[in-house]
Design a protein that fits this description.
Helix content: 40-55%
Largest sheet: none
Distance between the termini: 10 Å
Number of strands: 0
Strand content: under 5%
Shape: globular
Oligomer: single chain
């Protein structure tokens, strides 16, 4: 599955995607800043395949946060979402680069936006937001929220995200930290996004084979 996964991702992301404020270029050589990183293997695989773009100075910046719009765009490309819904959010104009991807995410059913008709495209995506989205993308059934009490910061996990968080944890798509915390409101990093989406795609692919 992994070999097929990376081959598919290469084709999907070959169209190009910006995952940082600086205009990125393909990292044709080993990234300068991932040696010894906990996600080094997966990051380097994505770099080698051309699925993860590095920055002009040859770095990947694995610990840099990823925005909601960037995360959504990456999910759309990897999972092949192409159909769009008609959307209207107060903080997202039709001229914004993220407009089309948000419309695809809404059509796919894994993004809804906030009650005040905003989508916060430039805000960092949090771990609980990412978990909730991925649970819907993969089609996971609601997780057993009682299992979340094992985390020291379980009370910080928002009620709307608990089933999604529990589902991705039960499916081993996402993990907590060694200190028994989940850090639900912590910004997702580029490395965490790679590992999370990689695991989610592999999970969905395995279930459909």
């Amino acid at each position: 599955v992994k070999k097929g996964l990376h081959g598919t991702l290469t084709g999907l992301l070959g169209l190009g995607m910006t995952l940082g404020a600086v205009s990125p270029a393909f990292a044709a050589q080993p990234a300068k800043d991932i040696n010894g990183h906990w996600a080094e293997k997966q990051l380097q695989e994505w770099v080698n395949q051309g699925t993860l773009k590095g920055f002009e100075e040859g770095t990947v910046r694995p610990n840099q946060s990823i925005t909601r719009a960037e995360f959504i765009a990456l999910v759309n490309r990897i999972f092949g979402y192409t159909e769009s819904a008609q959307v209207q959010f107060n903080d997202l104009s039709s001229s914004n680069w993220a407009y089309t991807d948000v419309a695809k995410a809404v059509k796919a059913g894994y993004v809804q936006g906030y009650q005040d008709q905003t989508i916060h495209p430039s805000a960092d995506v949090t771990r609980q937001e990412a978990a909730a989205m991925i649970a819907k993308v993969v089609g996971l059934t609601a997780g057993q929220t009682d299992s979340l009490i094992t985390f020291k910061d379980a009370d910080r996990i928002a009620a709307w995200s608990k089933q999604g968080v529990a589902a991705v944890l039960e499916s081993k798509i996402m993990n907590g930290y060694p200190d028994q915390t989940f850090e639900p409101q912590k910004s997702l990093t580029r490395a965490e996004a790679v590992v999370l989406i990689d695991a989610a795609f592999a999970k969905k692919t395995a279930e459909t084979v």
